[in-house]
Amino acid sequence: MKLNRRIITTVAMMLAFIQLQAQRPDGRLYHQLPDFPFVIVSDEFVTTPPAISDSLFDAAARGLRFRVNNTDLQPTEPFITLYREQLVPWLKEHDMMLRQVFVKGAASPEGSYRNNVRLSRERTRKLIDFLSAELGQPVDASRPVDAKSITEDYGLLVKLMGQANDADYGRVSQVWQECQGDEACCKRRLRAMDGGRLWQRLKEQYFPTLRQARVILWFARKMHADMKPLDLRHGDVALQLPERLTMEVSMPQQEQPLAYTRRHLIAARTNLVHDLLYVPQFGWAYGGNLQLEYYPLRGHYTMNAGFTFTNHRHWSDYKFFQLRDLQIELRRYFKGGGAFIGPYLGLYAEGTKYGIGFSKTKGWEGEGGGGGISVGYTTALNRKGSLRLELSASIGLFITRYDPYVYGNPIARTEDGLYYYDYYGNSSEFKERNHQFTWFGPTNAGVHITYDIIYRKKKMKNKE
Q1: Which residue from 53, 282, 349, 437 has the least number of CB within 10 angstroms?
Q2: What contacts 450, CB < 8 A, 6 or more positions away?
Q3: Helix (H), strand (E), coil (C) string for 292-329
Q4: pLDDT tens digits for range 224-247
Q5: pTM value?
């Protein structure tokens, strides 16, 4: 009986000690993942959230950037790839539970203040929804959210300018301090400085970084009787920790490099409309269409070149369909930053050589060319963005010179098994391409499948 009481007393003391350690304010029971500075982990029994000051948040938080006046997620955002392909698999492998979300959503200062309030709130919610959906652990009462919606983040603007040693850092910092957190005051004074030139430079250089929702995540490791030491392994770096995590949180003061990010370089594309072509009066005219698109590292413009080939000859039915078409195109994607996805506008030029026959009396041979405008929309089909679907349409001018063909000798009116030009004049005076046709209107349509055959790796740095 006494032995049982001693055991119970010892266990109770151990539990009390563990509870006391879990609530220690010095934060030594938390660990920051080396390759994911926005993730803090602890053992399951730790119940007190880590203290995240503004300075710690700005140093470690990462998140999603958004386009101007937009709250939609951009599939090619580096944070999405990092979270989906690297962090989430690690968290699931090590049985980590999401404990708390510390998130700030913000808008850049351009636009009306009321609209920026809406943007900052919606961006905060979009980031939370994305995090919980990918991890499969919904954010609810058991996983509280410490959320702040910063309408116009001048505080971060000042810090970014300080990190960049910007020549106007002192002036902007002074304005922010004198306005004492009044965003309307800061906006009014900054827009008036240097006749608006400073505001325009800030808008181009820093505001895109302010349009984001950033996050720090706290995870707890589920405790099991047969647990092994936690291996925080990522890439070529492995850090062995004891069963209990007792490392102190140490937030970096400098930007930490991320893994290399995949970027398009050359993609192969095929137009299913050309591949599975159906021609009235002829039938199915299956062909081959191959396009290659070159993507620079950044910007909006790409170069695209394509070739279409068909070679159908059904002599017994007096039908043939032979086509060679070469097209080059300059595209401008509306979305910049090297993403090359979403809507685009293009200028194209093409050259065509063809031989077409529908019956004994309907056949044409010729060459043509033209150019015009193309529009399209591209969307990713996989997480890496290497496989894409594209819809396109073109309108322009097409001019062709041709000669009609007929089966059999048109002058002798005999069928000798040969095709002749549909010409009844003196053969010595005959010149090829006596006919011309000009068309202005729709010239092409496409449902394309695109895949990156060559890609580059761009070393990105955390700037969120």
Answers
A1: 53
A2: 267, 268, 269, 293, 378, 387, 388, 389, 390
A3: EEECCCCCCEEEEEEEEEEEEEEHHHCEEEEEEEEEEE
A4: 555 544 444 444 333 333 333 333
A5: 0.45
